[in-house]
Amino acid sequence: MDVTEWLSRCPLVAILRGVRPDEVEAIGEALVAEGVVILEVPLNSPEPVESVRRLAARLGDRALVGAGTFRREAEVEAVAEAGGRLLVTPHADPALVRAAKARGMVAMPGFLTPAEAFGLLDAGADALKLFPAEAGGPPMLKALRAVLPKGTPLLPVGGVDARSLPAWREAGASGYGCGSSLYRPGDTADAVAAKARALIAAL
């Protein structure tokens, strides 16, 4: 499936920053059971590639599993070899997008300006992550919608929670990257499932 099909199943991207390999499978299972099927392990988490490996082995047929906070092409290679199929970055780096696409991954790089957005799309990005989204708010996303190619998947990330979801949706968001509103280090699988239900209800 391409990224739009995954987003049509559930528009939430679970950002599991700080998750550990020994807990990631239970948390991933809880999220998928609630319908959240895009799972991102940021690379500044403990043993992130091992967490990706475990998620991909257990949930790869039911979820789009990958990593975030990429900075180097070697990291793309490591995550791809672990079974990761999603690249998310906090910044606009066309080289990382091209590296991900060369390995058959879905590329969802971060951007903040129209110039960055167009450069990333030219490099082959499948979707764009507006980050930090709270810096411009929903009005910024709505303005970007007017100039970016029709149908470009746009996902705000940063400060997105159940309270702000309706405003982002009204502004034209295709999906939503949810970090602390969905998972904080130390959360149990049950706690994450409850947070997922609250966010889905807000949609």
Automatic annotation (TrEMBL):
Keyword Lyase carried by entry: yes
GO MF term (any one): 2-dehydro-3-deoxy-6-phosphogalactonate aldolase activity
Family to which this protein belongs: Belongs to the KHG/KDPG aldolase family.
Keywords recorded for this protein, A-Z: Carbohydrate metabolism, Lyase
CDD domains tied to this protein: KDPG_aldolase
InterPro entries given in the database record: Aldlse_KDPG_KHG, Aldolase_TIM, KDPG/KHG_AS_2
Pathway linked to the protein: Carbohydrate acid metabolism
Keyword Lyase assigned: yes
Transmembrane segments: none
Name of this chain's protein: 2-dehydro-3-deoxy-6-phosphogalactonate aldolase
Entries under Gene3D superfamilies matching the protein: Aldolase class I
Database matches in PROSITE patterns: ALDOLASE_KDPG_KHG_2
Annotated EC: 4.1.2.21
Subunit structure: Homotrimer.
